[in-house]
């Protein structure tokens, strides 16, 4: 028996998006279940929305109302602790996520082994604990929670406004737009026939279908634990 | 053992929407699997979009591009034969579905036993065969495919522009908007605690979670057939 090569799956993500947190955790959980080479790729959702002419769902009032319930239902389904944000316009639009995503891009360039854990801590801050993700102190605290060394934290913090970092984030965002992205999560499955883009944390059954894998729900190893 | 009362689940639907066809078939398939009293409720998607300030996904260019792939992937997943429409603006926007939905509303009022089968035939016309769904001849052909008697067809056709029919369709649409609808499919699960609205053919795992039922994928009786 020969094993077929792993399929590269890119997750383009921005920690401002709670639905993307679901996809992030699901893909991390499926690493040992699917024949997949998962590539975590920070991008800037604000740039994607601008380039595609798309608008956040909350700009349509009934969609915004529905999203609050939908998020809570999905949080229960995916077993991820989500707390609704009280002042979403201020937190998600005015403050936004640019500094968080630049910090993650710097980590991806200089200490990539911490990318997953710091991303998770930033999501936990904004979407579980209702905490800031743009001030230096916030970034430092997230990195400490992720067990990064102080040297590495300082290094990445000092490099987050370098043109190398800014360019890397811009290029990742443009790459996603080239794949057809108009929001987040954007997943790209690199099949033999070429890249296939999927949008949304509700498309895992279709991703599985494309990859000839089995979608076992949001917690793939639940059964073996029973 | 006492059996708990069936949970009323309303599907608000318009045959102009292919995603709603997926939901329609799934709910019909799950009738014998879930403790559910399924109520099929024709409504007018154009009215919902207007009332909610929402716009069709294809008005954002990259979303429209993505939707073509997403529809085909979902068609494969749900095992429903979808053919993309070549001139969507003409068919979906200009021609629209008002006459089809009035015909279905008249059927719901006067011959409700044919509502499911004629709805299915109208979806098959527009989304499988690329055929018209607004001309009288088209409505007649769909009704004949659904084995309606000629008398009944004539009756429903003659009543589709009555104020009773128009009012019933308008009221169903307004009811859905009151439940928070901004698109289709809109499903309303009537729990003990009150109505819970779900949007989208990708929300069945969450509907199952709400109903304490098991989501067995798009074909619930597949395993028993193997």
UniProtKB/TrEMBL annotation, chains A, B:
Keywords: Transferase. Its EC number is 2.5.1.18. GO terms for cellular component: mitochondrion; peroxisome. Pfam families: DSBA. One of its GO terms (molecular function) is glutathione peroxidase activity. It catalyses: RX + glutathione = an S-substituted glutathione + a halide anion + H(+). It comes from the Eukaryota. Residues 9-209 form the DSBA-like thioredoxin domain. The keyword Electron transport does not apply. One of its GO terms (biological process) is glutathione metabolic process. The keyword Transferase applies. The active site is at 17 (nucleophile). Belongs to the GST superfamily. Kappa family. This is Glutathione S-transferase kappa. It comes from Daphnia magna.
